[in-house]
Write a structure and sequence with these properties.
InterPro entries: Class-I_Pyr_Nuc-Dis_Oxidored, FAD/NAD-bd_sf, FAD/NAD-binding_dom, FAD/NAD-linked_Rdtase_dimer_sf, Lipoamide_DH, Pyr_nuc-diS_OxRdtase, Pyr_nucl-diS_OxRdtase_dimer, Pyr_OxRdtase_I_AS. By secondary structure, the chain is of the alpha/beta class. The chain is 32% helix and 25% strand.
Length: 460
Amino acid sequence: MADQATAQEFDILVLGGGSGGYATALRAVQLGFTVGLVEKGKLGGTCLHNGCIPTKALLHSAELADHARDSAKYGVNVTLDSIDITAVNAYKDGIVAGKFKGLQGLIKSKGITVIEGEGKLHGTDTVVVNGTAYKGKNIVLATGSYSRSLPGLEIGGRVITSDEALTMDYIPKSVIVLGGGVIGVEFASVWKSFGVDVTIVEGLPSLVPNEDTAIVKNLERAFKKRGIKFSTGVFFQGVEQDENGVKVTLVDGQTFEADLLLVAVGRGPVTANLGYEEAGVTIDRGFVITNERLHTGIGNIYAVGDIVPGVQLAHRGYQQGIFVAEEIAGLKPVVVEDVNIPKVTYCEPEIATVGYTEKGAKEKFGDDQVQIQEYNLAGNGKSSILGTSGIVKVVRQKDGPVVGIHMIGSRMGEQIGEAQLIVNWEAHPEDVAQFIHAHPTQNEALGEVHLALAGKPLHG
């Protein structure tokens, strides 16, 4: 029998039970390791409880509202009476609760020890939770992210983040969204569909500034058409609020007024006061610095998910969690570069991208070593039936593989699966062109654009 005074020891001790942490745990037990999973809140983390899943539920309700408004042009006479936000929230919360229950059951059935409470790193092999020490031969830091603000911008009252936006029990009349990135455009899209007057303020020159310029142009045109207002290229100065609303001032003196200000300027890493620095882990602006194999350089400590610099996506967290478990097992898993991780923004119209933008590809391979091809969804039967416009843009190395695919249009997020296989398997357009894409689907647009790049366009 082990001495009662010795700390409970695991092969792998994971700090954080969100996407990255629980994926590490699940893959580790498959590989025969004993696993302790420390979580102070709810298993599933941001993605499940106040990120991906609840926001997508809201976006589905928003899509139905838009369908009701537009139904007459499809010969169906439906009227939109109202949005019952209590019922919308009940539907959203029901989805989350179901997924949460399923996850809890899965974790329990695999024999993973869940340690409830806030964990802190002590030295290189110990995590202390509520005064109890637990030891790990390997430690994986997976403490996730929080909704960031700007210096001097206090959250409170009528100034909210996505966390508060997801629990609101009323629909505001008007909202200013600070930040035109993924979170900002998704909430702007939901609120517009719910009948809210929306203005996005983005300091950089365009909405979704990380996307390919062709995607940016299409999104901005679509948002204008939907009546979503936006101010780009001028930075935020400050906000005042009273019982009636908020007044936002930009650095050039412009002002905007609304009921609420949603601060959507990105997510910051949760790493403060957790003992990381004391253990020797390198922290830069709050992020944990690792090598490309996610090792921190200290002992057997790894880090995964939103605390590692790069794109903050749940599926990157899953992949990194699986990667680290396999790395510890000596399986030498393959590194997937951030640029080749598929990304979807679920506003209306949806954006789905993987690989290099045209600009990024030219910087990497040289201006004359890149070929691009665009296919307009106007030529796609299913897109016309759905009433959506948009494009598929493919970037290839000259006479070489496809290195980027960028899509925009209703429901185009569903096409990212094939797109990421094309890019990650380094397919040439000629390889893709010989495969058959079912008709009439939006997926055909991917086939068409590769036919065109292979020099044999069909409908374009």
